[in-house]
Design a protein that fits this description.
alpha/beta, TIM Barrel, 5-stranded parallel beta sheet, two-stranded antiparallel ribbon, 9 helices, 43% helix
């Protein structure tokens, strides 16, 4: 696919996401409780990411982007900052997710601005504040929280998409955005209707 005007890298992208681990999923959204990888395991993880991203670039011409994800070992502020320091921009970009950032105690606006030069791709979600408060108050697996509806259609949650739209215009972001409705796969009924509602809301905001 040819590179669209304003894009740094042409699609498609290889999205790299750390597996959601049981021991981290139960403390997703709680940076103060979650165990971190040992320095050795972290270096091993970074080496794997760099090897995959380099292979995708050099053999297939595909840009790799790393997606910090709730319940994985690349989720929280300190982990994202270390990731960006360890993986050169020419090797891989970032795919930041507004819903995962908020879920994991980060302000999406702050992080979109902070790493604007590393972002090649975005995911959009929204979070129901009442359900979020409930799942943060008890040990709940991340996908169980999704099954309870913590990720709601965009426009019905807590994220400020007027401000996100204004920021992306200011940054002249020209990359792709995927609108997601995160669900437990066993509770996927209604996903199409929810994504359709999210798309209609975003279009009403000028996206």
């Amino acid at each position: 696919m040819p590179k669209a005007p304003g894009q740094r890298f042409a699609a498609p992208y290889l999205v790299l996401i750390d597996h959601v681990h049981a021991e981290r999923s139960l403390v997703a959204g709680h940076p103060e409780r979650a165990a971190r990888l040992s320095p050795e395991r972290w270096r091993q993880t970074m080496a794997h990411i760099e090897a995959i991203a380099t292979l995708a670039r050099d053999r297939y011409g595909v840009r790799a982007v790393i997606h910090p994800h709730a319940g994985g070992y690349i989720e929280f502020e300190d982990e994202i900052e270390q990731l960006v320091a360890d993986i050169p921009a020419e090797v891989a970009g970032l795919c930041l997710d507004t819903g995962h950032l908020y879920y994991s105690k980060m302000d999406p606006l702050t992080w979109l601005r902070r790493y604007a030069e590393r972002i090649d791709y975005l995911h959009f979600k929204d979070i129901d504040p009442e359900v979020y408060a409930e799942v943060m108050a008890e040990p709940v697996d991340f996908f169980a929280a999704c099954a309870r509806g913590v990720m709601c259609p965009i426009g019905r949650g807590v994220l400020d998409y007027d401000a996100i739209h204004a920021l992306l215009k200011e940054l002249d972001y020209q990359g792709y955005i995927t609108v997601e409705q995160e669900r437990d796969p066993r509770n996927a009924d209604g996903s199409l209707q929810d994504v359709t509602a999210s798309l209609a809301f975003l279009q009403s905001k000028g996206f």
